[in-house]
Every structure is written in C-alpha cells, then in structure tokens.
Amino acid sequence: MYDLNQKTIFVLDHTQYFSISSEDYIALDYLKGKTGPSNDAIPSTSPGLQFSKSLWTCSVESSIEYCRIVWDLFPRGKLVRFIVSDTAAHIVNTWKFATQNMSHVLNAMALVGVPQRNTQSSDYSVIHGLRAAIEALAEPTEQQLNLMHAAENTVATNEKIPNKGRVICVTSARDNPSMKSLEDIFHNVLMQQNTLAMTQKKILNIDHCHLVIINVVPMNVDTLVTNRKQIELSSCLSTEIHTTSAPEISNKLTHLIMSHYDLASTTVTGIPMKEEQNANSSANYDVEILHARNAHTAICGTEVLLPTSIKEGAEYETVTLKWCTPRGCGASDMSACPPCLAQQRVTPVDVTSRPSSCLINFLLNGRSVLLEMPRKAGGKTTSHLLSARGGEIFIHSLQITRSCLEDPPSISEGPGGRVVDYRISDFATFIKIHRFVPLKSKANCEDNLHRTRDRLYKRSRYFPLTLNTTMVHNLQRNMPWLSTFLRKIAKEDMDKTDEVQCQQNIFELYTAASRGELLPFATMNSNRLKGIKKTEQYRLLCAELEMIIRGYATNSHHKVILENIQNVRAACGDASIKAENENSRDSSGKSIIRATTDSPLSPPHSMDSNSNNASILKANKRNLINAGQRTLFDIVINVERSQNSKRPEFTGRLCTPIGQVAKLYPDFGSKEKETGSAASIATKDETLPIKTDGSSLRS
After folding, report:
1. Cβ contacts of 625 within 8 Å, gap of 6 or more
2. pLDDT tens-digit profile of 356-384?
C-alpha cells in the first residue's frame, strides 16, 4: 500500500475540443443482399460508409481499458478513480470498493456523454479536474481509514500513514509553455493541500504524486508539445509528458501501465483454431497476454534465452512462447510437470478479439497448456504453464534448470564436464578470516558492521573459484616468495618493512621477466597457455596481482606496491597501463626501471646534489617518455645505468669543503721523496769497493 500505484486517478478533459473527430476513419460494409438508405446496393468504397471516433471516445475507451487490466490482475488493493472536467469537476467513482468495477464506470460515462461542440463558455478547463484529483488523493481509502482508527486507539499516535498516488491527465495543450503552466498550477495546489492537511485530521498529507500528462491530437496533425521523460519538480511531485494521436492512446496507456505496475507481455504463438467460416480447416493464431514481470524473472537459468520482439505499432517488448500439446488440470496430469517457481494472474491485451476469447474459454473449461521457449545450446524446453482455477487464469513459471530438491552435484566428479579444481581449501580459509565475532560492548555496532561489510565487499570482488581461472594461486607452490607476498599484502597494518620486502619480491619478478624465464606452473592447464607469449604471461600475472592488491589496499604502503606492480606491467608491454603512467610520470619523479630496481641491497643514495647522477636520471626519463615501445636491450641498458648511478660517492668530494677543488692524491709527492732518500742510504751501506787489475780483466 506504499507504492504510487496504490491510488490512480484519471482526469479526462471534457472541453469542446474533445468533440472533434480523431480523423481515423473506419469503413462500413453492408451484408450481402442488404440495401442502404437509397434502397440500392452501395459499394463499400463509397466515402459515405465510414465514420471516425471523437477524441473523447478514444480517451474514454483507452482509460477504461487501462483500469480493466489493473482490476483483472489486482482484484483488490489497486484503486482507480475517474474525474471528468469541463466547467466543473465531475466525480465518477470513489475509493470505496463498491464503485471499483467496470459496470459503475461505464454507466457513469454514458451519462456524461460526448462534449457539446457549440457550447461557448470560458469556464471550460481541465484545471478543475486537477484540483479535484489532488483533493481525492488526500482522501483516505478504506484501508487507510482502518489504520487511522487503529492509530487513534493506541498510545503512539504520531505514527504517519503513508499516502502516495498517480494522476493521469488526458488533455490537449497548445505548446510547451502551456504544459509548463499546467504543471506549475498543479504543484501550487498540491503544496496548498499539504498545508491544509496539517490542520485537519480527516485528510492525509500527500507524500508524493506522479503526474502523467497525455497530450492528445487528431490523426496526422502536428503539435508543438514535445515528449519529456519523468523529472522531479519537488520532493513531493514528479511529472512526465507524452504526446500521441487519438488512435494511439490505447497503445500509449498499455506501454505506461507496464512500467506503472511492473508488468510484462507474453505472446502465445501457434494456437490452433478452427476457422469461423469453414469448421473443417484450422489456422494458427497469436494471443498477447499481460502479467506480472516476476513470471519471467523467476526463471534463473543461464542457458535460458527469452525470445523478445516488438509488436507492430507498440513501444514495448513481448516474450514469444510457443503453444504445446494441451492437457488436463488434474493431479495425474500435473504430476509430470516440473516444479513451479511462481504464478501470476494473466489478462489478454485485446479482450474482444476472437483468438483471445477462444483461449480464455479453452482454459476456463478445465484445460491447461504448456508453453515452450528455446535454449541457448539449441532445442526447446517447457518454461511456462497456463491454467485456470476459481474462474481466474494464471501463468506458472516452471523450473527448467536443476531443481533445488535434487541432490547437489559432487565436486569430485570428473567425467561429464564437471569442474574438479575448485579452490575449496582457499575458500574455507577466506571464510575463517572473515568470520563475524560478537562484541562485548554494544557501542558503535552499526559502524563496525558497516566497516566489516565494506571490507568483505572489497576482498571478495576478485576470488577465482577454480584453479584453471587464476595464475597467482597456481604459482604459489613453485614461487616461494609469492605466498609471503600475498600474506603481507593482506595485512591492514602494513609497515615500511613489509613494503621493502614486497618491493624486493617485485624486483625478482621483474628480473625473471626481463630474462625471459618461463613461469613455473604446477596445476595450470597446459592447453590454456598454448600460444601465449612469455611477456603476455607476465602481463596477465601482474594484472591479477594488481586486482588482488586493490582489494586489500588500506594505506600508503599498499599504494606504493600497487604503483610498482603497474610499472612492471607497463614494462611487460601493457599499452593500457602505459597510457595511465604517461600522465602521472612527471609528477611521480620516478622512472619505471628505478622504481622496480630499488631493493634493500642497493647502496644508499647521496643526500648532496650530484650533477652526473642528475643528468643520467634526466636522460633516462627523457628516453622513457619519448620511447613508445621499448625493446629488451633498452631495458637492460637502463638497468645498468641505474645501477651505475648508485655507486658510493667519491671520498675526496665528501672531505673537501664546498667551493674548493679536491686535490688528487695529496700525499703522493712527499711519500715518493721519503722513499727515494731511504733507498739511496741503503745502497751506500751495502756497496763494497772492489779493485781489479788489468790481468784479471784481460783474462
């Protein structure tokens, strides 16, 4: 009772304009052997044997058809009222259940009659009816009266009774400014009525009103009023505008009723019926029925393909189901049917057509019909059942997938295409980590629950169900650092030490990728990796790691790790991540190779300015920015340059004050003199005088 469709009011314009013709002429045919007014056989092509309905007749027929569908599908609870507006507002029926029927409305409309064309008066206006509609929305229904009486008898009298409704105004305006003026007047009257409701107890406050204005014009006549979707004028009023020709009012209201009451259309095709002229022959006909949308949405099979189409002249889709062999409605006949998921009332769209009448009579006589629909994999399946009980026709949604009443399939079953590599142990671990534990204190319970739900939502956004659909969890056994990396990433209080260790692991991954090493898959299906290059495997691995890190990211350390993974992914040739890093590379101040090669084993960077290192880094950044697709040779050269830039600083520069020139080998000269003098003294001491004679020399 809290929906907008709880109360629906039709305001029908009864001014002189609606007495004109709709210009949709219907030809008349005389029966064979009958004569016309001149006692001669007049051919059917004569222009005198045709007529057209007035705008008023088209409006009344379409609006009554609207309420017929509502009352067929919702016998109780959905109320519809009619108000006719000319020089004053004429109330056709009330919210009482005794006036909510077709006979009462049709008799009242017959008394109203067609508008008089020759009447001249300035008091004719649709505003009278809109004012009366707002007052009618404030009137309580029988159910609301019971709630009001119950609230008066209880202590808590401040309980507010919800009151919403919809007003459908069928009128004709000159242009868009006229429509805007009509909306403003309706809004002002609505606010005045809510102000009045605060001072009186017998009327209700209107929480929200949905105003639907249908601008009607004769056939083949242009109008200056344009269609407009639903907009919110205020917190208590939303409006929309539709322009249509008089013969199309019925299709427009049928389209609107599907959104107003959440209905769906089904067309039953291939219904065999005997020809009216020849009883020995039969032909196939189609019948369109309306029902609640749940009759289609209740079927939850992935292999289901609902065949939809748009009927000629309509604005909505209809589901096409094929007629099957009929059967009875007894227990023995129904025992062979699949379990029923949902049942909804149905009503035909064209209740006066011969195929609709035959189908209704066939079902009311105690028969039932199965309806077929196609599958994605081919073939057909019985998805719905039409049957009648207690004078009402229902459509049943049948279970077409595996029933919940059967035994669940065993995970260990291998043959038959069933999946055998579920991550059962990982899922059990995931459940244990995210168990809810009752708190001793009741303070901030909602905040804790909201934070826990948010955490569970982030971490469960990516969870592969099988090992064949993940690369990270296949490599944990043969890549020892990966398990440690995932544990550190999952820590909400990740610190600097964990960040440095994760950066070292990322560096190992980048080194393996630059060397072209194969990923050591253990249980991964080898057929799935055929034709995938090594760089593509590393790119997919980095993309999966990025998704995992995003699910656990809570502080700045996670953000650094995420950026490093993105850099490695870009180095592996991912064009999408390259484009993202291209915009943020200047602001980050770090190159891709510099970020991935920093490790705990690298020497510390100098705190002083180094022109040589700065020039190398600038050249490296310039090369990375200008290079579109880098080769493996470029990556290796950049790694060597970055490693060379990390050598220890020159000791002489560190010991020399700023502004002075460092002297190379300052003690080199003094040490050489001392060494030379010491050598000469030792030579004099060790040399002995030797005399030689000529004989000895000659000998």
Report:
1. 582, 585
2. 998 999 899 888 898 988 776 667 788 88
Domains and CATH numbers, the chain: 7-27+50-261 (3.40.50.410), 264-398 (2.40.290), 421-433+446-572 (no CATH)
Burial of 236 (0-12, 13-18, 19+ CB in 10 A): middle
pLDDT of 355 above 50: yes
> What is the C-alpha to C-alpha distance for residues 104 and 289, in angstroms, rounded to an integer?
25
- Mind listing the pLDDT tens digit for each residue in 460-469? 888 888 877 7
The 10 Å CB-count burial string (b at 16+, else e) for 425-449 is ebeeeeeeeeeeeeeeeeeeeeeee
Positive/negative CA dihedral, 610, 611, 613, 618: positive
The helix-helix angle for 496-515 and 556-571 (nearest 10°) equals 10
**pLDDT tens digits, residue range 31-45?**
655 554 544 444 444
Q: How far is CA 359 from CA 4, 147, 191, in A?
A: 33, 42, 49
Report d(CA 645, CA 613) in Å as an integer: 6
Longest dimension (CA), the chain: 182
**Rounded Cα gap, residues 147 and 135, in angstroms:** 20
Which helix (H) or strand (E) segment is 12 a member of?
A: strand 7-13
Please tell me the distance from the alpha carbon of residue 646 to that of residue 665, in angstroms, as a whole number.
24
What value does the mean pLDDT take over residues 219-248?
92
pLDDT of 601 over the 50 cut: no
The structure's pTM equals 0.59
